[in-house]
Amino acid sequence: MVTETDSPLLTTPLNALHRELGAKMVTFAGYDMPVQYPLGVLKEHLHTREQAGLFDVSHMGQVVLRGDGVVEALEKLVPGELKALKEGRIRYSFFTNDQAGILDDLMIANRGDHLFLVVNAACKVQDIAHLTAGLPGIEVEYLGDDRGLLALQGPTAAAVLARFVPEVATMPFMSMVNASLKGIPVTIARSGYTGEDGYEIGIDGARTEDVARLLLAEPEVSAIGLGARDSLRLEAGLCLYGHDIDTTTTPVEAGLTWAISKRRREEGGYPGDAIVRRQLAEGAARYRVGIQPEGRAPAREHTEIQDASGQTVGEVTSGGFGPSANAPVAMGYVTAANAAVGTPLSLIVRGKALPAKVAALPFVPQRYYRG
Amino acid sequence: MTIRFTEDHEWISLDGDVATVGITTFAQSQLGDVVFVEVPEAGRALTKGKDAAVVESVKAASEVFAPVDGTVVEGNQAVVEDPSLVNSDPQGAGWFFKMTLASPAQLDGLMDQAAYDAFVEGQH
Fold first, then answer.
1. Position B109 in a domain
2. Do A208 and A290 fall within a single domain?
3. What CATH number corresponds to the domain at position A323?
4. B38/A contact by beta carbon, under 8 A
5. Is residue A367, in this structure, part of any structural domain at all?
6. ipTM for the complex?
7. CA–CA separation, A233 vs A245, rounded Å?
8. What residues bear N6-lipoyllysine in this entry (chain B) (predicted)?
9. A267 and A303 co-located in one domain
10. What is the C-alpha to C-alpha distance for residues A254 and A287, in angstroms, rounded to an integer?
11. Residue B60 lies in domain
């Protein structure tokens, strides 16, 4: 295997625990991460949809922004509605460049005296540089590899976590609080990347394994690797940065305009705002869509997409087998003329044209907590 | 009955004039849960080391290569309909295809059970 650099592998606070649990480890974004445990990707995926899965996402970047005017300053880098973001609430947004390409997607929480951000592991170094350069006078504090982040996801996640922290049971979706879990100070956000109800728990690195062991001791909870994390988010129709979105895709093309408020569409004030406004008014040339292959063969990333006449109209950006859908599922970009749900497409897999249709996303219903 | 193994983790078992081909217990353990299998049609000519079948897990697609030159007699429709047979019985009901051999002497160039076991040991 060839890795991107010769730099030593980074590890999360749970590295020893992953090995103890028998995980198969892979390099992801420079980190030594569990791709699956002995349960296997298929059962890990189904377990998360039926019970609760615990994911180590400590490789992601946790960043605190402080300073006068931090909200106005960050709105210059992202199209998200931050001025109306109430204390304790979280917004999904993305950093854009001057061409309205997406530099990274992220979560932004209003924590009262500061903003709290979670960014992708593979982008965090450049994101921190981007924040530092783009937010003069604002303190950018990377919580670093000393901070752990665990995701507890699934229909029983709330019941499990409420045994330790009763107040989480009625937390709104996309909200965040400070709490104490068996005396360990944590941040708890009701959010995730599986389409299920669940939480993301920020913990001091030295206590992350303690929290993981407490949660894994609950009968509903299994450790879940990156393999199932990917199939869960794909079924939920969620973008993976570097695959479904990147610097060549705009928020309009990616179908993420729900994350840009009316005020921000009108006022702009973020990189690439004119392009987003124009694409909103005139339409984009291509769109991200769900793709449902008709047979059993999965269509993987980079699979060519053709229309009914055999013209190339796009490419798959994420594709595989959806264990809950019990069928192959994919996402990709197609020309605007082919983006309507139900449009017949062909997927070129191993030289053969396999029939498929544009499908509504998500492939499985999202089950976020709605009170 | 002679069983031989390739470095790509296929097994081939010769019984009379017809050989059965599949992937090894080690190979299926590395792949994880198999969710899709494509097997060759009867009559297809196979070339040693070239694509013969496809096996896919949740995460990835892999090729199954022909261990030797020959002609397909039968693809196993049972694994097409139930790909999990590749995990549950890789060297039995989870076979991929049967073939006749163009040159049975090619089997001599493959590993026997002891050599394959040592080869797998060396992969860890």
1. no
2. no
3. 2.40.30.110
4. yes
5. no
6. 0.88
7. 14
8. 59
9. no
10. 6
11. 2-103
pLDDT in tens, A133-182: 999 999 999 998 779 999 999 999 999 999 999 999 999 999 999 999 99
Select the residue of A227, A296, A350 nearest B58 (Cβ to Cβ).
A227
> B34 to chain A: nearest residue by CA?
A42
B68 assigned to some structural domain: yes
Query: What is the domain extent for residue A24?
Result: 1-283
Q: What pLDDT digit, counting tens, does each position of A217-242 carry?
A: 999 999 999 999 999 999 999 999 99
Q: Give the list of residues 6+ apart from residue A16 with CB closer than 8 angstroms, or none.
A: A209
Nearest to A41 among B38, B58, B61 (CB): B58
Per the structure, the count of domains in chain B is 1
In B, which residues are within 8 Å of A36 by CB distance? 32
Distance from CA of B39 to the nearest CA of A (A): 12
Largest Cα–Cα distance in chain B? 38
Q: Which of A49, A48, A54, A14 is nearest to A32 (CA)?
A: A14
Do the Cβ atoms of A299 and A356 come closer than 8 Å?
A: yes
- How far apart CA A4 and CA A28 sit, in angstroms, is 10
Closest Cα partner for A358 from A328, A322, A334, A326? A334
Residue B28 near chain A (CB below 8 Å): no
Tell me how close the Cα of A273 comes to any Cα of chain B, in angstroms.
Answer: 37
Quick check: helix, strand or coil at residue A144?
helix
Asked if the C-beta of A321 comes within 8 angstroms of chain B's C-beta atoms, the answer is yes
pLDDT at A2 (0 to 100): 41
Question: Domain check: are A126 and A53 in the same one?
Answer: yes
Which tokens belong to B39? 């097997």
Contact (CB<8Å) A323/B32: no
CATH number at residue B20: 2.40.50.100
